[in-house]
Amino acid sequence: ATLPLARDDNLSKRSRGKDATVLILGGGVSGIIAAKTLTEKGITDFKIIEARDELGGRLHSERFGEPGRQVTVEVGANWVQGIGGGEGQGPENPIWTLVRKYGVETRESSYYSNIAMFDQTGPADFSDIFDEYEHDYTELTVAAGARVEKNLVDTTARTGYGLINVKPKTPHEMAVEYYTFDWEYAQTPEQSSWIASSWGNNYTFDVASGGFSPDNQLSIDQRGFKTFIQKEAEFLAPHQVSLNSVVKTITYSGEGVTVTLVDGTKLEADYALVSFSLGVLQHDDVTWEPELPEWKTEAVQSMSMGTYTKIFMQFPKKFWFDTEIAIYADRVRGRYPVWQSLDHDNYFPGSGVIFATVTGDWSERIEALTDAEVQAELMDVLHTMYPDMTDIPEPTSILFHRWWNDPLTRGSYSNWPASFFQEHHDNLRATVDERLWFTGEHCSQKYFGFLHGAWFEGRDAGQELAQCINGGGCVHVREHFEEVRNARPYKVDDYNAGRRK
Ligand SMILES: Cc1cc2nc3c(=O)[nH]c(=O)nc-3n(C[C@H](O)[C@H](O)[C@H](O)COP(=O)(O)OP(=O)(O)OC[C@H]3O[C@@H](n4cnc5c(N)ncnc54)[C@H](O)[C@@H]3O)c2cc1C
């Protein structure tokens, strides 16, 4: 593809001797889409700095299984969630647009029908409870919407469930609640905002709320799901990307930024666009000189990072359920509750591959175990699911990614807790000294956690930064709140005055 030429005024604005006008830190979806947007706006003097040996970030495909029986599996993102663009649907999800553009092979994946069910006695049927909880989840989001209209405070999704009288106690109830909630947010209802989790769902899946559509597509492309973004990145010239480059320190002032890599290389630029995950920002893998202002640090530390772990196993042959998905109801909430079969007509028949998903605290727990210890726990569950089967073989391969301990992610995707305020979120996106810009899925108010959240944030940051560089003004974009105040509950007089009205 031919690139538009860099505009002369961009080049002349760049102080002499700098390595680029913009350093884009991180080459995931948001970094690449920001680069694409800058290019469309005539700014080509940027460089993407990426730690890994390829672009794509949390799109992470791996060849898995025994030689001769290998398949490409996705240890990171796997679904386009909310497709849209069709008759009676909302707008098209931009990830779906790219998936179609590059012919990435996907299959429709329906995770609310045709589910096998198990409990501690073996196969079980609790589909009535499942249907009830699916309905209850919708009620939870509707009740959250009603709170917004009345301007009522946010609380946890657990409070929300309590207020609509949903109080799971039995293993079956806990498993289906887990399936409708934690399996999406990678954290518990206690750890999640009632209102933000509801809008997060609606803006993606609910057409009436402006969402795309309720449909999901699962990538089975043997080039990897990452193909859609790596193809989209092919416009980049070699000098615009630096792989295997781990950022250690970001030094900034009103004049510009200096980025120091772990190998000591120093890169200077007018602006840095930081696309690292929220988890990376929360930990000390990257340091800031000077330290980030308190309003930024508070915003970063106030949102949360969920962890979502898929544990793949390959067996000599399939011995399990014929559906795509099974739910296992254990006495312990969150203990290997969701199983997905890839040895299925829709996916990779004959592959012998199945995977279990755990999230949140359970993910962090198993990251401390060895693969063999996790395998033993999974086999224990399979024996519980199939008590009469005496010849269940051991898996020939096992694979899972330790997202929580990965210094390039520190978790899987962001989640909005009840103690995280709108002003915090504005501060997450706000620029520092007009030189440090921020993007990534966690910056998306509507779509945090999703690939399309990363896409929209990359586009918006690219547009606003281009406007700033092109002389359209930097000052009034992405302003911050110096302090996030929540005085109301503590100002008793105001509160009483409000009540008297
Ligand atoms: C297990 C899992 C399952 C998921 N499932 C789905 C799904 O099915 N559908 C969906 O829509 N979303 C899903 N997501 C979320 C989705 O993957 C993310 O929202 C999206 O990929 C984030 O893109 P990003 O550009 O914001 O961040 P990233 O992809 O994290 O990009 C940031 C980049 O910065 C790099 N980096 C980090 N630290 C440094 C450093 N010090 N120096 C240099 N580079 C650095 C990283 O390597 C990375 O490439 C899933 C995520 C995970 C982990």
From TrEMBL:
Q: Which domain of life is it from?
A: Eukaryota
Name used for this protein in its record: Amine oxidase
- The organism named in the record is Thelephora ganbajun
